[in-house]
Amino acid sequence: MIERRKFIIGGGAVLAGLATPLIGTRAARARTLGGISYGANKLDIHTPGTDNAPVIVYVHGGAWRMGSRGEGRAVADSFTSRGYVVVSVDYSLSANAERQAREVAQAITWVRQNISSYGGNGSRIAVMGHSAGCHLACLAVLSGLAPGVSALVANDTGAYDLQYLADIHGGRLPILYAALNKRANWRNWSPISYAGGAGGIPVLVAWSGAEFRRKVSTRFADALAANGHPVTRFDGSGYSHISIRSGMGRNGDKLNTEIARFLAASV
Predict the structure, then answer these.
(1) Rounded distance, CA 137 to CA 256, Å?
(2) Torsions phi, psi of 78, nearest 5?
(3) Which tens digit of pLDDT belongs to each residue from 130-154?
């Protein structure tokens, strides 16, 4: 596992950083600052209008080739109302997974170093992602590319263990994972290879109703737990891959409620 970690980190240095806070009068001061450069790409910062707030860094999905940081708006609307700064990040859609993970790590590092200027606490950062964004968030945080993260919310990817994903699909990755279809890189691009990383931070692992997603996610959760991470599991068997993404930012949704509870206890 140490050799695998060195492989992904050794390609170069990282590119160029809970108790729910009281609401008070932050609604009048809340704001969004869009299109801020973190080096390799851009991010949006959604603030609740308070100081020293815990931070959520959101990484969007889209099969590693689509999507944008705008996907994080619903999460921002939900969680800024709970007193969090929410930062939604873009990454290069034309790059391979390792480069994308490095860009996500660069964004997290930028946030850790600069978010105090926007009312956030750089020592209280949770990283959250859905689908491809979940994979990249886990890869960046667990491999050690983005140190200093307090908690991780991993929502519904099949890419935690690419060899296992291929094994349960007859030896090949499903078409949705075509961007990862370089077999020689599967071990290094699989977050499960770094299950002992990030200092054993708490992780919430959620999955939707597809059977292969349940299998891959529970295997990943088991590996995290075996390596000392406090793991919260969310069985979203009643959700589709799309609806479980929407649930992250919908007040009153069971997943949203569980994420809020997890963050309040972890960040």
Answers:
(1) 18
(2) -70, -45
(3) 999 999 999 999 999 999 999 999 9
Q: What type of residue sits at position 121?
A: N
Report how far apart, in Å, the C-alpha atoms of 185 and of each of 26, 89, 164, 179, 249 are. Answer: 46, 24, 14, 11, 33
Report the CATH fold assignment for 2-266.
Answer: Rossmann fold (3.40.50)
String of b and e for 44-80 (b: at least 16 CB within 10 Å)?
Answer: bbbbbbbeebbbbbbbbbeebeebebebbbbbbbbbb
* DSSP run (H or E) holding 256: helix 254-266
The model's pLDDT over 44-96, given as tens digits with 9 standing for 90+, comes to 999 999 999 999 999 999 999 999 999 999 999 999 999 999 999 999 999 99
CB atoms within 10 A of CB 172: 12
Q: Tokens at residue 22, please?
A: 């009281």
What is the tens place of the pLDDT at every residue in 204-239? 999 999 999 999 999 999 999 999 999 999 999 999
Dig out the tokens for 93 from the structure. Answer: 């859609």
pTM: 0.90
- Structure tokens of 57? 């860094």
Quick one: CA torsion of 148, 154, 160, 165, rounded to 10 degrees? 180
CA–CA gap between residue 133 and residue 139 (Å, rounded)? 10
Q: How far is CA 90 from the centre of its chain?
A: 12
Measured over all CA atoms, what is the biggest interatomic distance in the chain, rounded to whole angstroms?
A: 56
Cα 53 to Cα 225: distance, rounded to the nearest angstrom:
29
Provide the 10 A C-beta neighbour count for residue 204: 24
Radius of gyration of the chain (CA): 17
Report whether 69 contacts 22 (CB < 8 A).
Answer: no
Element holding 220 (H helix, E strand): helix 211-226
